[in-house]
C-alpha cells in the first residue's frame, strides 16, 4: 500500500515506516517563533533547564505581530527575544523584516520535503512548497529548540483536487474561501490536506501559498502540495542546500477525497464572525465598509499587491474609508517599490504600513471602531480579531478589497476588470 | 486521579481569540493578569464565577484559531481544572496537555451549565453527578499521558531532555 506525502516526510524524519495514526518522534529541519509566542517559548525553554539549543542554525525568531512595538510592555518582550537570540546564536528577524511565514520562505528556511514547525498556526502555509509544516505552541517550540525533535501523530490525509480554468477576476483566495466554506472550520481537524489538480498547477506560487495558508481554517495540520518547476524556480538562487521533493504514491490511502470544478466560480467572501461563513461576493454587495486591509501572510505577496494595484491604479479610495496596505516582507516591499505599486497605493489614498502583520490581529495599527465593517485579505474574522469585538470583519481577495474600498461598499471586483 | 468540579457550558467553535483575546495576550507574560480576561468576549462574568477546580464544557472544535499557548495557560490560572469538548483543534489540544491542563474528548451534549462533574483521567470516565450519567471519553496517546503525569512538557523535558514515544 502506497504512502501519502505526510507519511513519507514524517517517516524519513523519524526513521520509521510511518503510517497514519502512528506516533513518531521526528527530527526537525527548521523551527520558528514570532513575538506573540516566542516570549513564552523562551520562558518554557528556560524552565527545561537544558543549556544550548540542539541546532541553533535551525531556529529563527521573528518580530512581526507587534512591529513596531505599540507599548512599553511589548517592547520589553521584544528585548527579551533579542537577548535570547543573541545569547544562543539564533537568527532574529527584527521589525520591518516582515510576516514570519513570508520571511521563512524568502530566506529559504523551508524547502521541499522538509519538516518544519512554527509557533504560529499559519505555519501550514509552507505546505504549498511541499514542506510538512505545522503550527505548534510555545512549549512545543521550546522542546524543539532544546532537543531538535518533536513528537507527531502521523495524520490521515484528505485529498483535494481542484480543476477547471479560473474565470477572469477570480483568484486563489476565492478558491481557498470556497474550500473553507465547503469543508467547514473543523472538517479537516487532525488531518493533512493534499491539494492538487490542474487549477493548482496553473497558479503561481503566491496563489498556492494563499490556499495552503487557509488549511488551518479547516482544522488541518498541513496543507500540502507537490513541488513542480515553479516551486524549484522559487528556490533557485535562494539556497544551496540540497533537498528532495516528495510526491504521494499512486496507491496512497486517503481518508477522504474531494474534487472541485472552479470553472464557474464567482468571487467569494467570508462574513462575520466565522471563516467558513462563506458566500459569493454578489450576495453581500452594497454592505458599507469603513476599513480595508490588503496584506498579511494570506495575501501580502507581490502577486496580491499587483492585482490590487491593477484595480486601484488611477482611482481613489472612497471618502470615509481607510485602506491599509502592508507588504508581507521586506523583499515584497522592495519589489513593490521597484514596480511602482507603492506609489499607486499611496496616490489612491491608502496608508502603506511596515512589512509585518499590521492590523491582522488587532494589537496595533488599524483597530476598527464600534459597529464598523472591515474588509480584509486576512484569514480570520473572529469577533474581536482585529482588536474590537464590536466590529465586523469580511474576508476576501485583494481585488475584492480594493474594489470595495473604491466604492465604500462591498463590490464584486469583476466590475473593475481592466 | 479523580477531579471534581462544576461545569461551565459553552458552545461549538470556541476559538483562542475568545479564550484570551490578542489585545491582552501580546502585552504580558503575567498569566494571572491574563486569567482575569479569559472568555470575556463570550461571557464577561466568567472569571468572577469560575471556582478553583471547575470545568469548561464545550461542543466541537474547542480552541480553534491561533496557536497561542496563553489560551490553556490563562484557563489554568483562572482555576479551570480541565476542558471537556466533543472535539478539540489540534494545536490547542497539544498546548493544553503540554501545560498540564487535561483536555477530555467526550460527547458533551447532555451536560448542562452548573452540573457537578467527576472525572477519572486514567480510566477515561466522565460522570455527570447532577444527571446521574456516565460518559466514556477517548483515551489519550501514551506520550500525552506521560506529559500530563509529569505536570507538563517543561517538567517532562527538564527531567528527560528529549521525547520518547515507547
Ligand atoms: S499576518 Fe495575521 S494570520 Fe498571518 S501570522 Fe500575522 S497575525 Fe497571524
What features would you describe in this structure?
The complex is a heterodimer of chains A (418) and B (166). By secondary structure, chain A is of the alpha/beta class. Chain A contains 15 helices and 18 strands. Chain A has a five-stranded parallel β-sheet with strand order 4-3-2-5-6, sandwiched between helices. The relative contact order of chain A is 0.14. The model of chain A has no long low-confidence stretch (mean pLDDT 97). The longest helix of chain B is centred in the middle third of the chain and has 9 residues, at 90-98. Chain B has helices at 16-19, 22-25, 31-35, 46-49, 70-77, 90-98, 142-150, 153-160; strands at residues 2-9, 55-58, 82-85, 103-105, 116-120, 125-128, 133-136. The mean pLDDT of chain B is 92. The chains are: A alpha/beta (418), B alpha/beta (166). The interface between A and B is large, with 55 and 45 residues. The structure holds iron/sulfur cluster (SF4). Iron/sulfur cluster binds at residues 65, 99-101, 120, 122, 296-297, 357, 360-361, 378-379 of chain A.
**Strand segment tally of chain A:** 18
What is bound: which ligands? iron/sulfur cluster
The overall average pLDDT of chain B, rounded, is: 92
Overall shape of chain B: globular
Strand order of the largest sheet of chain B: 4-3-2-1-5-6-7
Give the proportion of residues in helices of chain A: 25-40%
Tell me the strand percentage band of chain B: 15-25%
Q: Mean of the pLDDT scores of chain A? A: 97
CATH C-level class of the largest domain in chain A is Alpha Beta
The largest inter-chain interface, given as chain pair and residues per side, is: A-B, 55 and 45 residues
First and last CA, distance of chain B: 23 Å
* Terminal-residue CA separation of chain A: 50 Å
Integer-rounded radius of gyration of chain B: 15 Å
Count the domains of chain B.
1
Helical segment count of chain B: 8
Amino acid at each position: 500500500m502506497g504512502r501519502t506525502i505526510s507519511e513519507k516526510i514524517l517517516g524519513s524524519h523519524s526513521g520509521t515506516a510511518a503510517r497514519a495514526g502512528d506516533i513518531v518522534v521526528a527530527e526537525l529541519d527548521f523551527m520558528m517563533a514570532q513575538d506573540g509566542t516566542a516570549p513564552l517559548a523562551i520562558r518554557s525553554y528556560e524552565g527545561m533547564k537544558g543549556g544550548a539549543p540542539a541546532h541553533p542554525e535551525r531556529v529563527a525568531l521573528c518580530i512581526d505581530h507587534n512591529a513596531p512595538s505599540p507599548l512599553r510592555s511589548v517592547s520589553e518582550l521584544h528585548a527579551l527575544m533579542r537577548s535570547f537570540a543573541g545569547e544562543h546564536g539564533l537568527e532574529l528577524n527584527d521589525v520591518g523584516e516582515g510576516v514570519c511565514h513570508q520571511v521563512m520562505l524568502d530566506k529559504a528556511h523551508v524547502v521541499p520535503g522538509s519538516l518544519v514547525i512554527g509557533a504560529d498556526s499559519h505555519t501550514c502555509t509552507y505546505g504549498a512548497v511541499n514542506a510538512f509544516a505545522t503550527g505548534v505552541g510555545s512549549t512545543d517550540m521550546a522542546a524543539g529548540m532544546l532537543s531538535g525533535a518533536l513528537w507527531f501523530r502521523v495524520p490521515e490525509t484528505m485529498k483535494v483536487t481542484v480543476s477547471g480554468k479560473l474565470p477572469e477576476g477570480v483568484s486563489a483566495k476565492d478558491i481557498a474561501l470556497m474550500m473553507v466554506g465547503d469543508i467547514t472550520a473543523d472538517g479537516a481537524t487532525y488531518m493533512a490536506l493534499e491539494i492538487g489538480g490542474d487549477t493548482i498547477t496553473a497558479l503561481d506560487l503566491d496563489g498556492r501559498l494563499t490556499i495552503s495558508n487557509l488549511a488551518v481554517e479547516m482544522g488541518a495540520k498541513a496543507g500540502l502540495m507537490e513541488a513542480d518547476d515553479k516551486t524549484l524556480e522559487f528556490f533557485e538562487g535562494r539556497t544551496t542546500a540540497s533537498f528532495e521533493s516528495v510526491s504521494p504514491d499512486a496507491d496512497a490511502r486517503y481518508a477522504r477525497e474531494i474534487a472541485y470544478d472552479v470553472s464557474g466560480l464567482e468571487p467569494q467572501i467570508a462574513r462575520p464572525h466565522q471563516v467558513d461563513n462563506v458566500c459569493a461576493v454578489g450576495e453581500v454587495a452594497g454592505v458599507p465598509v469603513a476599513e480595508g486591509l490588503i496584506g498579511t501572510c494570506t495575501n501580502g505577496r507581490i502577486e496580491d499587491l499587483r492585482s490590487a494595484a491593477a484595480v486601484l491604479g488611477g482611482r481613489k479610495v472612497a471618502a470615509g474609508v481607510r485602506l491599509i496596505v502592508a507588504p508581507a516582507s521586506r523583499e515584497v516591499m522592495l519589489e513593490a517599490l521597484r514596480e511602482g505599486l507603492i506609489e499607486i497605493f499611496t496616490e489612491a489614498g491608502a496608508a502603506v504600513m511596515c512589512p509585518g502583520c499590521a492590523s491582522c490581529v488587532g494589537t496595533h495599527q488599524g483597530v476598527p471602531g464600534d459597529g464598523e465593517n472591515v474588509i480584509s485579505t486576512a484569514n480570520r474574522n473572529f469577533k474581536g480579531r482585529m482588536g474590537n469585538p464590536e466590529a465586523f470583519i469580511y474576508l476576501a481577495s485583494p481585488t475584492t478589497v480594493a474594489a470595495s474600498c473604491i466604492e465604500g461598499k462591498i463590490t464584486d471586483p469583476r466590475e473593475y476588470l481592466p | 486521579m479523580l477531579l471534581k468540579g462544576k461545569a461551565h457550558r459553552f458552545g461549538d467553535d470556541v476559538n483562542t481569540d475568545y479564550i484570551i483575546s490578542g489585545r491582552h495576550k501580546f502585552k504580558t507574560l503575567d498569566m494571572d493578569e491574563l486569567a482575569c480576561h479569559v472568555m470575556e468576549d463570550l461571557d464577561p462574568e466568567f472569571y468572577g464565577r469560575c471556582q478553583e477546580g471547575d470545568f469548561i464544557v464545550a461542543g466541537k472544535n474547542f480552541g480553534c484559531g491561533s496557536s497561542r499557548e496563553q489560551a490553556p495557560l490563562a484557563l489554568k490560572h483562572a482555576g479551570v481544572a480541565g476542558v471537556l469538548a466533543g472535539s478539540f483543534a489540534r494545536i490547542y489540544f497539544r498546548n493544553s496537555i503540554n501545560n498540564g491542563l487535561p483536555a477530555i474528548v467526550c460527547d458533551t451534549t447532555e451536560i448542562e451549565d452548573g452540573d457537578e462533574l467527576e472525572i477519572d483521567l486514567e480510566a477515561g470516565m466522565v460522570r455527570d453527578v447532577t444527571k446521574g450519567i456516565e460518559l466514556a471519553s477517548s483515551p489519550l496517546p501514551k506520550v500525552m499521558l506521560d506529559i500530563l503525569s509529569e505536570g507538563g512538557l517543561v517538567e517532562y523535558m527538564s527531567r528527560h531532555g528529549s521525547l520518547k514515544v515507547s
